[in-house]
Design brief:
- S-adenosyl-L-methionine binds at residues 17, 62, 85, 100, 104.
- It is found in: Cytoplasm.
- One of its GO terms (molecular function) is rRNA small subunit aminocarboxypropyltransferase activity.
- Its EC number is 2.5.1.157.
- By secondary structure, the chain is α/β, with parallel strands linked by helices.
- The protein has one domain (3-163).
- It has seven helices and five strands.
- It has a five-stranded parallel sheet.
- Helix 1 (17-23) links the parallel strand 1 (3-7) and strand 2 (28-29).
- The N and C termini lie far apart (37 Å).
- Bound molecules: S-adenosylmethionine.
Length: 167
Protein backbone atom coordinates (compact mmCIF):
# COMPACT_ATOMS: atom_id res chain seq x y z
CA UNK A 1 0.00 0.00 0.00
CA UNK A 2 1.49 3.33 -1.07
CA UNK A 3 0.55 6.11 1.30
CA UNK A 4 2.03 9.55 0.72
CA UNK A 5 2.23 12.58 2.97
CA UNK A 6 2.51 16.05 1.43
CA UNK A 7 4.13 17.73 4.44
CA UNK A 8 3.58 21.46 4.80
CA UNK A 9 5.59 21.76 8.06
CA UNK A 10 2.96 24.00 9.64
CA UNK A 11 2.06 22.17 12.86
CA UNK A 12 4.10 21.17 15.89
CA UNK A 13 6.22 18.28 14.53
CA UNK A 14 5.57 16.31 17.73
CA UNK A 15 1.84 16.45 17.10
CA UNK A 16 1.70 15.91 13.35
CA UNK A 17 -0.08 12.66 12.61
CA UNK A 18 1.22 12.75 9.02
CA UNK A 19 4.79 12.73 10.20
CA UNK A 20 4.04 9.93 12.64
CA UNK A 21 2.75 7.76 9.78
CA UNK A 22 6.09 8.29 8.05
CA UNK A 23 8.14 7.70 11.22
CA UNK A 24 6.42 4.37 11.75
CA UNK A 25 6.98 3.27 8.16
CA UNK A 26 3.35 3.45 7.00
CA UNK A 27 3.88 6.34 4.59
CA UNK A 28 6.48 8.26 2.60
CA UNK A 29 6.85 11.96 2.00
CA UNK A 30 6.12 13.29 -1.44
CA UNK A 31 6.53 16.73 -2.94
CA UNK A 32 3.89 16.25 -5.57
CA UNK A 33 0.45 14.68 -5.12
CA UNK A 34 0.28 11.00 -6.05
CA UNK A 35 -2.72 8.84 -6.81
CA UNK A 36 -5.93 9.80 -5.02
CA UNK A 37 -5.48 13.01 -3.05
CA UNK A 38 -7.53 13.62 0.10
CA UNK A 39 -8.96 17.11 -0.18
CA UNK A 40 -11.90 18.07 2.05
CA UNK A 41 -13.12 20.60 -0.51
CA UNK A 42 -13.32 18.15 -3.37
CA UNK A 43 -16.82 17.56 -4.71
CA UNK A 44 -16.12 13.92 -5.31
CA UNK A 45 -16.33 11.44 -2.48
CA UNK A 46 -13.81 8.57 -2.08
CA UNK A 47 -15.30 5.14 -2.74
CA UNK A 48 -14.48 1.65 -3.90
CA UNK A 49 -14.51 3.11 -7.44
CA UNK A 50 -11.05 4.52 -6.57
CA UNK A 51 -9.46 1.28 -5.47
CA UNK A 52 -7.61 0.64 -8.72
CA UNK A 53 -6.00 4.08 -8.75
CA UNK A 54 -4.97 3.67 -5.11
CA UNK A 55 -3.54 0.21 -5.78
CA UNK A 56 -1.55 1.48 -8.73
CA UNK A 57 -0.53 5.00 -7.72
CA UNK A 58 -1.30 5.32 -4.01
CA UNK A 59 -3.14 7.70 -1.69
CA UNK A 60 -1.90 11.17 -0.68
CA UNK A 61 -2.84 13.27 2.32
CA UNK A 62 -2.08 16.98 2.66
CA UNK A 63 -0.55 17.38 6.12
CA UNK A 64 -1.16 21.08 6.70
CA UNK A 65 -2.53 23.02 9.65
CA UNK A 66 -6.34 23.41 9.67
CA UNK A 67 -5.83 27.07 10.66
CA UNK A 68 -3.99 27.74 7.43
CA UNK A 69 -6.01 25.49 5.16
CA UNK A 70 -8.69 27.64 3.58
CA UNK A 71 -10.49 27.28 0.26
CA UNK A 72 -7.66 29.05 -1.56
CA UNK A 73 -5.11 26.65 -0.12
CA UNK A 74 -7.08 23.54 -1.09
CA UNK A 75 -7.75 24.96 -4.57
CA UNK A 76 -4.01 24.50 -5.22
CA UNK A 77 -4.45 20.76 -4.81
CA UNK A 78 -7.67 20.35 -6.77
CA UNK A 79 -7.53 17.89 -9.66
CA UNK A 80 -9.55 15.03 -11.07
CA UNK A 81 -7.88 12.82 -8.44
CA UNK A 82 -9.08 14.88 -5.45
CA UNK A 83 -11.53 13.21 -3.13
CA UNK A 84 -13.36 14.21 0.03
CA UNK A 85 -14.40 11.81 2.77
CA UNK A 86 -18.09 11.29 3.49
CA UNK A 87 -19.51 12.25 6.91
CA UNK A 88 -17.20 11.06 9.70
CA UNK A 89 -16.35 12.56 13.10
CA UNK A 90 -12.89 13.36 14.41
CA UNK A 91 -11.80 11.24 17.37
CA UNK A 92 -8.61 13.17 18.08
CA UNK A 93 -8.67 15.53 21.08
CA UNK A 94 -8.05 18.69 19.04
CA UNK A 95 -11.17 18.47 16.88
CA UNK A 96 -13.06 15.83 18.85
CA UNK A 97 -16.51 15.00 17.41
CA UNK A 98 -16.30 17.65 14.69
CA UNK A 99 -17.70 16.36 11.41
CA UNK A 100 -15.38 16.19 8.38
CA UNK A 101 -12.42 17.78 10.21
CA UNK A 102 -10.15 14.77 10.56
CA UNK A 103 -6.46 14.47 11.30
CA UNK A 104 -4.26 13.23 8.47
CA UNK A 105 -4.03 9.79 10.06
CA UNK A 106 -7.80 9.56 10.58
CA UNK A 107 -8.39 10.62 6.97
CA UNK A 108 -6.01 7.97 5.61
CA UNK A 109 -7.33 5.29 7.94
CA UNK A 110 -10.96 6.05 6.99
CA UNK A 111 -10.09 6.00 3.28
CA UNK A 112 -8.43 2.62 3.61
CA UNK A 113 -11.42 1.29 5.52
CA UNK A 114 -13.81 2.47 2.80
CA UNK A 115 -11.53 0.84 0.20
CA UNK A 116 -11.74 -2.38 2.21
CA UNK A 117 -8.15 -2.43 3.53
CA UNK A 118 -9.32 -3.02 7.08
CA UNK A 119 -6.10 -4.41 8.57
CA UNK A 120 -3.90 -1.48 7.69
CA UNK A 121 -6.67 0.99 8.49
CA UNK A 122 -6.89 -0.34 12.07
CA UNK A 123 -3.11 -0.65 12.42
CA UNK A 124 -2.80 3.05 11.64
CA UNK A 125 -5.39 3.92 14.27
CA UNK A 126 -3.48 1.90 16.85
CA UNK A 127 -0.64 4.47 16.67
CA UNK A 128 -2.72 6.78 18.87
CA UNK A 129 -4.75 6.24 22.03
CA UNK A 130 -7.58 8.24 20.47
CA UNK A 131 -7.53 5.90 17.45
CA UNK A 132 -10.04 3.71 19.26
CA UNK A 133 -12.20 6.75 19.98
CA UNK A 134 -12.23 7.53 16.26
CA UNK A 135 -13.19 3.96 15.45
CA UNK A 136 -15.91 3.78 18.11
CA UNK A 137 -17.43 7.09 16.99
CA UNK A 138 -17.49 6.07 13.32
CA UNK A 139 -17.85 2.29 13.32
CA UNK A 140 -21.38 2.34 11.97
CA UNK A 141 -20.62 4.95 9.31
CA UNK A 142 -17.38 3.30 8.21
CA UNK A 143 -19.02 -0.10 7.96
CA UNK A 144 -21.86 1.32 5.90
CA UNK A 145 -19.48 3.07 3.46
CA UNK A 146 -17.07 0.13 3.16
CA UNK A 147 -16.87 -1.31 -0.34
CA UNK A 148 -19.69 0.94 -1.61
CA UNK A 149 -19.74 2.88 -4.85
CA UNK A 150 -19.83 6.67 -5.00
CA UNK A 151 -23.60 7.08 -5.50
CA UNK A 152 -24.39 4.67 -2.69
CA UNK A 153 -22.06 6.52 -0.29
CA UNK A 154 -23.74 9.84 -1.12
CA UNK A 155 -27.15 8.32 -0.33
CA UNK A 156 -25.92 6.81 2.94
CA UNK A 157 -24.32 10.13 3.93
CA UNK A 158 -27.57 11.99 3.17
CA UNK A 159 -29.58 9.67 5.37
CA UNK A 160 -27.10 10.05 8.26
CA UNK A 161 -27.11 13.84 7.85
CA UNK A 162 -30.90 13.84 8.17
CA UNK A 163 -30.58 12.07 11.52
CA UNK A 164 -27.86 14.45 12.77
CA UNK A 165 -29.13 17.49 14.68
CA UNK A 166 -27.89 20.56 12.76
CA UNK A 167 -25.26 22.59 14.65
C1 LIG B 1 -5.63 19.86 7.48
S1 LIG B 1 -4.59 18.47 7.76
C2 LIG B 1 -4.44 18.58 9.51
C3 LIG B 1 -3.37 17.63 9.95
C4 LIG B 1 -3.15 17.66 11.44
N1 LIG B 1 -2.32 18.76 11.77
C5 LIG B 1 -2.51 16.32 11.84
O1 LIG B 1 -1.44 16.32 12.46
O2 LIG B 1 -3.11 15.29 11.54
C6 LIG B 1 -5.62 17.03 7.57
C7 LIG B 1 -5.61 16.44 6.18
O3 LIG B 1 -6.33 15.22 6.20
C8 LIG B 1 -7.14 15.12 5.04
N2 LIG B 1 -8.55 15.25 5.45
C9 LIG B 1 -9.05 15.53 6.67
N3 LIG B 1 -10.39 15.55 6.66
C10 LIG B 1 -10.77 15.27 5.39
C11 LIG B 1 -12.03 15.15 4.71
N4 LIG B 1 -13.19 15.32 5.35
N5 LIG B 1 -12.01 14.86 3.39
C12 LIG B 1 -10.84 14.68 2.72
N6 LIG B 1 -9.63 14.79 3.30
C13 LIG B 1 -9.59 15.08 4.61
C14 LIG B 1 -6.74 16.27 4.12
O4 LIG B 1 -5.69 15.86 3.27
C15 LIG B 1 -6.31 17.30 5.12
O5 LIG B 1 -5.46 18.27 4.55
Amino acid sequence: MKIFVIELYEDDPEKSTGRKMVRFGFAKYTEKPRGIVLNPLSEEVISIDDVEIVNKYGLSVIDSSWNKSDAKFYARFMSRFSRRLPLLFAGNPINYAKPYKLSSLEAVSASLYILNFIDISLKLLSLYKWGKTFYDLNKELLESYRGKRKDEIIEIEKSFLKEEPQQ
